[in-house]
Amino acid sequence: MKNNHLKAGMILSYTAICIQSLISLIYTPVLLRLLGSADYGLLQLAISTIANLGILSFGFTGSYMRFCAPYREKGEFNMLPGLNGMFLIIFLAASLLSMIAGTVITLNAELLFTHSMTETEIADLKRLLAIMTVNIALTFPLNIFDMHIASQERFTFQKLLVIITAVLNPLITLPLLLCGFGSSAAAVCIVAISAVKLVSSAFYCIKHLNMRFSFNIDRTIFKQISVFSFFIFLNIISDQINWNVDKTILGIFKGSESVTFYSIGSQLNGYFLTFSYALCSLFTPRAHTLVAQGKSNVYLTRFFTRFSRLQLIIMTYVFLMLTAVGKPFIRLWSGLDSDIPYYTAIILISPLLITSAQSIGIEIQRAKDLHKFRSVVYILIAAFNILISIPLCIKFGELGCAAGTCIGLVIGNIIIMNIYYHTRVGLNILYFWRSTLKLLPAFIPTVIAVIIFRHFSQDGIISVISGAAIITLIYVPCIYFLIIRRERLKAE
Question: Is the domain of 158 the same as that of 192?
Answer without folding.
Answer: yes
